[in-house]
Amino acid sequence: MGKLITTKPIYYKGKNYVPGEEIHGTSAEIIEAWKRAGSVKELVEQEKENVEGGSDGIKEEIEEEAAKEPVKKGKRGK
Question: How far is CA 42 from CA 5, 30, 71, in A?
């Protein structure tokens, strides 16, 4: 499995993850749910190197996409 990078804000195990940050899921079920919801992007080996090395702008691309999406409020957020 590749590295998981958040594309949306996620609160998991007492920590807030912002878009572009690496997240470590402990179960295959939670990881699959994040993928279905579009909350994470899995990077393959070459993409991992690009994010770590700062080239190719993948992390910046994810952060830009997240910034474009409006934050959805639930019933309590009105």
Answer: 6, 13, 22
